């Protein structure tokens, strides 16, 4: 659902949502009061909410009307962090909204859904979208073997697909991955625990590839047996 008064933002969000195959736009409303009739009879998984609605209705009322929906705040200003925090918003999109920021917010939504185990037949939450070579690439978690960090980009090594290069930090990428399936073992490496074939206190074997364990990550060797089930 989009709850927004700014025409340019509505058009941008509508276009961006239509590029993600597992998202379906449920409605566009100019105010929360206008959307309330719909919200009274149907659950919405995610709402893009104009921060100006907080000046018209108190926070508790908004929480009640949106029920358990995840919320992404939209605003022309970046000074409403406290209000966004009070709503437990997933993200805060500054206008004009760009696709990269939108995609990061959607990935946070996907991870939040994974962590709360809200799986359903309409939303297969086992992937993320990342920008690579001017395209948005759908990456399934179970294809990732490891992720390698370089100066200003990462390389995601996959099987059976080829590796892809993404201009993004390793830290921000780690936030998008389900923690029970991936583990950071070095300042430059994240590995998929299901792909571990052997390990020592110095390195981890992923098939034919050896990944070093960083000196600040030596404690993870005690966690690996648990992660392997």
Q: Taking strands numbered 1, 2, ... along the chain, how are they ordered across the largest sheet?
A: 2-1-3-4-5
State the CATH topology of the largest domain: Rossmann fold
Biggest sheet layout: 5 strands, parallel
Uncertain residue ranges: 117-124
CATH architecture of the largest domain: 3-Layer(aba) Sandwich
Distance between the termini: 39 Å
Order of helices and strands: EHEHEHEHEHEEEEEHEEEEEH
What sort of overall outline do the alpha carbons produce when their principal axes are compared?
A: elongated
Question: What is the count of structural domains?
Answer: 2
Global Rg: 20 Å
Structural class: alpha/beta
Oligomerization state: single chain
Number of strands: 15
Number of helices: 7
Helical percentage: 25-40%
Strand content: 25-35%
CATH first level of the largest domain: Alpha Beta
Q: For the record, what is the CATH homologous superfamily label of the largest domain? A: Response regulator
Mean pLDDT, to the nearest integer, reads: 82
């Amino acid at each position: 659902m989009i709850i927004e008064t700014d025409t340019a933002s509505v058009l941008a969000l509508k276009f961006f949502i239509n590029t993600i195959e597992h998202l379906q736009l449920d409605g566009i409303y100019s105010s929360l009061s206008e959307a309330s009739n719909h919200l009274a009879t149907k659950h919405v998984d995610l709402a893009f909410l104009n921060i100006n609605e907080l000046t018209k209705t108190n926070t508790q009322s908004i929480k009640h009307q949106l029920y358990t929906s995840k919320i992404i705040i939209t605003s022309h200003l970046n000074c409403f962090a406290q209000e966004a925090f009070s709503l437990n918003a997933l993200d805060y999109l500054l206008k004009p909204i760009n696709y990269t920021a939108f995609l990061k917010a959607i990935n946070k939504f996907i991870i939040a859904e994974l962590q709360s185990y809200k799986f359903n037949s309409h939303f297969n939450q086992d992937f993320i979208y990342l920008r690579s070579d001017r395209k948005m690439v759908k990456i399934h978690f179970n294809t990732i073997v490891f992720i390698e960090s370089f100066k200003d980009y990462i390389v995601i090594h996959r099987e059976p697909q080829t590796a892809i290069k993404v201009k993004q930090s390793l830290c921000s990428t780690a936030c998008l991955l389900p923690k029970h399936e991936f583990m950071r073992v070095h300042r430059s490496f994240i590995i998929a625990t299901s792909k571990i074939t052997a390990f020592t206190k110095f390195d981890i074997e992923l098939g034919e590839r050896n990944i070093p364990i960083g000196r600040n990550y030596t404690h993870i060797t005690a966690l690996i047996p648990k992660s392997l089930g």
